[in-house]
Amino acid sequence: MENQDFISIQEAMDKDSGEVSIRGWVYRERKSNKFVFIVLRDSSNIIQCVIKKGSVTDEIFEEASKLLMESSVKFYGEIKKDERAPTGYELFVKDMEIVQIAEPFPITKDQSPEFLLDQRHLWLRSRKMTAMLKIRHTVIGAIHEFFRSNGYYEFEAPIFQPNACEGGSTLFEVKYFQDKVYLAQTWQLYAEAGIFSLEKIYNVSPTFRSEKSKTSRHLAEFWMAEMEAAWMNLEQCSEVGKDEIKFIFEKVLKENKKDLEILGRDITKLMPMVEKEYPTITYTEALKILKEKSGMDVEWGKDLRTIEEEKLMEHFDTPVVVVDYPKEIMAFYKMEKKLRPGVDKIDAPGPVALCFDMLAPEGYGEIIGGSQRDTDIEELMKYIKKEGEDPKNYDWYLDLRRFGSVPHSGYGLGVERVVRWICGFENIKDAIPFPRTMLRKSP
Q1: How do strand 221-230 and strand 46-52 relate by DSSP bridges?
Q2: What pLDDT is stored for residue 321 in this prediction?
Q3: What confidence tens digit (pLDDT) does each residue in 292-329 have?
Q4: pLDDT at residue 265 is higher than 70
């Protein structure tokens, strides 16, 4: 079979009939005295292959009878429609070449989530993980396409960084020759340098947070898609976030319907993300909704926890942008909202920051966090000290305010959080090929 022209399983089914050569791995196998039924898989789909005694040589039938799950094999035969088959087609095998007969596969039905995580290097072959990986591919591709088509330049920042950005408690410390540095919590501080050159920039890169969390929403290593733009205020920034999410969903619903079906995802719940506008509310309005509609009395000044976010989003079927969080609970770089006398008013009992979170429906929580960056050196130094940091370590960052400072804003989107939401997964660990958490560093 070496000289055969192989096509994918999906291409073979698209051909509808005739002779084809395909190759892949045994997904399921069933045997009797007269038939060997092999469900073959490749990256494109699965198909039932029938090896009938008498239609092939005795040697081929005997070899086919030895095939175990995940054995690799090449088939040549005739493809025909059959509605009873798993994907509506069967391949009647005429010739076969075994590449490797697998050992008994360790993954069987109804395995625990922890066992599947231990076997992640093999579980990636499952239809569930393959569908997720294809959706993730579309999501990341859509992010690049969205920003590049809107005039943003891709800009890289170092993974080894000397400073904290999102609080010292979640830093991963790394030995760096005779010194120490930290794994990047975000691309942001370096992006704020980059905008003075390129003005509109974005990045998709790994991010590290040493959060001592065992929840279904946190990873120690994850991918973040970030953007930063000069001359941009908070409202403009949050609108970019809304447009990005719509663009991602349009791409996934166009390119991954089959994968969503494999995952059993209700596509009707995803359609509003494309068809509807996303509301913007203030933090104070969010507390009012929680009190009046969910019976939750949250004290003003407290950050919204998972439970409050989930309760709030029970009243929406699209993402919601929440703005004007209390300044005191925000990171040092988030600018305080200044009111113009006689023009602006605010519905909050205390200072608020020019920042926003985008929350997803169905209990999937925060997917984007962003802000307008503070340009006041004295204010920045005050809040850097408040977080227990030495302003001298941020001298290079403060230089960005000393030389041609301009208003600017940016946000970060959690790739796995968006993938988890699109796929309808309970746990974020299923939204990345090899998850890293407080309790898991292998395989």
Answers
A1: unpaired
A2: 98
A3: 999 999 999 999 999 999 999 999 999 999 999 999 99
A4: yes
pLDDT of residue 214: 76
Whether the pTM exceeds 0.90: the reply is: yes
Please state, in angstroms and rounded to a whole number, the distance separating the CA atoms of residues 84 and 37: 13
Give the long-range contacts of residues 24-33, CB within 8 A, separation 24 or more. Answer: 24/72, 24/73, 25/70, 25/71, 25/72, 25/73, 25/125, 26/67, 26/68, 26/69, 26/70, 26/71, 26/72, 26/73, 26/102, 27/69, 28/69, 29/67, 29/68, 29/69, 31/65
Q: How far apart are CA 248 and CA 33, in angstroms?
A: 50
Between strands 46-52 and 89-100, the pairing is parallel
Rounded CA gap, 51 and 4, in Å?
19
Tokens of 212: 């001592």
- Quick one: 189 exposed, middle or buried, by C-beta within 10 A (0-12, 13-18, 19+)? buried
Tabulate helix, strand, coil % of the chain (nearest 5): 35, 25, 40
Q: What angle do CA 242, 247, 249 make, to 5 degrees?
A: 100
Tokens of 280: 């913007």
Query: What is the pLDDT, as a whole number, of residue 340?
Result: 66
- Residues 229 and 199 sit within 8 Å (Cβ to Cβ): yes
Mark 391-411 as b/e (b = at least 16 C-beta within 10 Å): beebeebeebbeeebeebbbb
In angstroms, the CA 116 to CA 423 distance is: 18
Instruction: Select from 195, 197, 285, 274 the least CA-distant residue to 237.
Output: 195
Residue range 106-119, pLDDT digits in tens: 999 889 999 999 99
d(CA 267, CA 235): 30
**Do the Cβ atoms of 22 and 40 come closer than 8 Å?**
yes
439, 214 contact by CB (below 8 A): yes
Q: Is the dihedral of CA 126, 129, 135, 136 positive or negative?
A: negative
Instruction: Please identify which residue in the block is written with the tokens 């010292």.
Output: 168
pLDDT digits (tens, 9 = 90+) for 198-253: 999 999 999 999 988 777 888 999 999 999 999 999 999 999 999 999 999 999 99
In this structure, is the dihedral angle defined by the CA atoms of residues 14, 15, 19 and 20, taken in order, positive or negative? negative
Q: Supply 106's token pair.
A: 């360790």
**Please, what are the domains in the chain?**
9-100 (2.40.50.140), 117-431 (3.30.930.10)
